[in-house]
Amino acid sequence: MISAYFQGTLETTKVCQECGTVSTTDETFQDLVLPILSKEGQSFNSIDECIATYFTHDNDVEDENGDRKSIQPMISCPKCMRDKPATKSTLFKIPPLVLCVQLRRYNNSGKKIDTSVKFPIEGMNLTHYVKIPSRAEEMAEDGSSNDSYGGFGAVGATKQPYQYVYSLFSIICHRGQL
Ligand SMILES: [Zn+2]
C-alpha cells in the first residue's frame, strides 16, 4: 500500500572510461535525502539546487565537517576484468506518485544546518531527472507489443512522453537538536 504511492526506482548508469562498457543498476527508494550544502560549504537557497546536486553529484562524500568532496566513480568492468574509472549518472527510472524528500540538516558530526531552503507549493517539475524510456522498456512494462504509444518511445527516442510535475502535499518540521 505505502510502496504503491511512495516508492520509486532510481537507475544508475556507469560507463567504463576505458572501453565504454555500460552497466546499470536499479534501486528502489521511498524518500530522497537531499544535500543542502554545496561543495564549497555554501547552503543552497532552493530545493531545486538540492535536487540538482543530488542527481549530478551523488557520488560525493561528506567529511566529518560536512564538507562535500567529489570522488571518482569506479566500475567493476566485466570487459576490462578489473575496476576502472567510470562516468556515472543517476535518473528516476520510475518516479514515485508521491515524492518524499528529506533535507539533510545534520552533517556527519551531528551539527544542525539551520539554513532556509525555498520550495514551490506547486509546479516542481522533475521531468528533467526522469529517464526517457526506450521502446523495449515501455513494451515490457506495458505487457503488450502493439504500438500504443504512437510516435513516443520509438527506439532512440529523445522526447520525454510524460511530464512529472509535483505539488506540495505536506511538510514535517523537526525542531531542536538531535
Ligand atoms: Zn572496461
From TrEMBL:
Catalytic reactions on record: Thiol-dependent hydrolysis of ester, thioester, amide, peptide and isopeptide bonds formed by the C-terminal Gly of ubiquitin (a 76-residue protein attached to proteins as an intracellular targeting signal)
Entry's Gene Ontology BP terms: protein deubiquitination
Entry superkingdom: Eukaryota
Domain USP, residue spans: 1-178
GO molecular function terms attached to this record: cysteine-type deubiquitinase activity
Protein name: ubiquitinyl hydrolase 1
Enzyme class per UniProt: hydrolase
PANTHER family registered for this protein in UniProt: UBIQUITIN CARBOXYL-TERMINAL HYDROLASE
EC number: 3.4.19.12
PROSITE patterns per the UniProt record, alphabetical: USP_3
